[in-house]
Amino acid sequence: MEWKKLFPNFEPxxxxxxxxxxxQRSFNAGDIIMRTGxxxxxxxxxxxxxxxxxxxxxxxxxxxxxxxxPGQACAVSMICAIQSTTSEIMAKAExxxxxxxVPVQLMDDMMNKxxxxxxxxxxxxxxxFDELLSVVDNIAFRNMDERLEFYLKRHAxxxxxxxxxxxxxxxxxDLHSSREVISRLLKKMEQxxxxxxxxxxxxxx
Amino acid sequence: MEWKKLFPNFEPxxxxxxxxxxxQRSFNAGDIIMRTGxxxxxxxxxxxxxxxxxxxxxxxxxxxxxxxxPGQACAVSMICAIQSTTSEIMAKAExxxxxxxVPVQLMDDMMNKxxxxxxxxxxxxxxxFDELLSVVDNIAFRNMDERLEFYLKRHAxxxxxxxxxxxxxxxxxDLHSSREVISRLLKKMEQxxxxxxxxxxxxxx
DNA sequence: AGTTACCTGTGATATTGATCACAATACAAA
DNA sequence: TTTGTATTGTGATCAATATCACAGGTAACT
Lengths: 205, 205
Known about the structure:
Two copies of one chain form a homodimer. Chain A contains seven helices and ten strands. Chain A has helices spanning 12-21, 75-83, 104-113, 115-141, 144-159, 168-175, 179-191, and strands at residues 23-27, 32-34, 42-48, 51-57, 61-68, 90-93, 97-103, 163-164, 195-198, 201-204. In chain A, 32% of the residues are buried. The interface between A and B is medium-sized, with 34 and 34 residues.
């Protein structure tokens, strides 16, 4: 598996170190990779697939925060790993995914020795923080119709596909809304010629 | 100024380095310390006062994310400084505040040399990330009444005071709501004996 | 073909919060 | 004391969204 190509800035020595110590794991669509309250023993680098990072509400709600794709890493797992504290979020494989688990014991050492790792970690924090900011923006300032459009657009960008296999109920869960509202808003978008609706599938135009 | 006491874990060498290179700045209540789109040239350590970190919406809205108090640092300024990118948030002094500005050029060096600084940076990322998560939780899962209670409780915790000098309008701005709504909810809280309302002042019971 | 389990569409109604309008109050300055 | 200004209280109304109720469609399995 040519995982190095996903992290082209890592120096050869670092690549070697990771290769020696990390474990590659496969997840099926729907598998939970990390759950709220769990202790984290390694940092996750995504090689393939798509990981959904979301927040769970005790009284039964989910809320999508962002997706991780190949070449990205979970900022929360980095921080938790370093501090050996528990995670506050859930991570689920959206599709079949491959993840490289780098043991936490290496983290300190890698941060010191490898500039490229240090940069990568900082870059990861930065991106996730920004994504969280845009999530806050959306729920604080936007109505559901705009949030839905943003949601679909983001998905298209992430996957590069213009079809999206998902039910209205799942979208409602991600946006913490209700199925009926999403159905109605999608209908309106269809009337505006932004999407075409099918069963379990939305086509972006 | 005995700023070291606020950062008891910093090694003496690190303290000395900071002392030699950092600049202490004073801000009056209401001063903007950092604005959206601005390039960041130093990392801010709060020595005294209270800094409000908030998000600004192009079409005229603010949204409070969290406060920084003495001994805390701005995670955004750290990340931006390292990457020499622009900030995506606003920082404003809520009261007279003292801030230590550590030039960005030192950051890399300090991260490598001083374990205590490294730990501090990680700890800062972690805390701010968690705070952002709880912000997301609140707006995603809670109604305004709960958000208001959380807002008041958090303020009490941060300041240690049980009185809060603020107008209903300002609270509404922080929560991105409207003055009337906040007034009504506060009245209800008063009826439940959770607060006593005065002009420009709320007393927590 | 019949059954079952999901999806989707749509009306009716309820709730939350935003907005408008205006009154009442409190403090400060003249 | 008067006047002015900012703050607060409150009713009425509106908009967005959640919730309930139910109908019809579509795929999957027997």
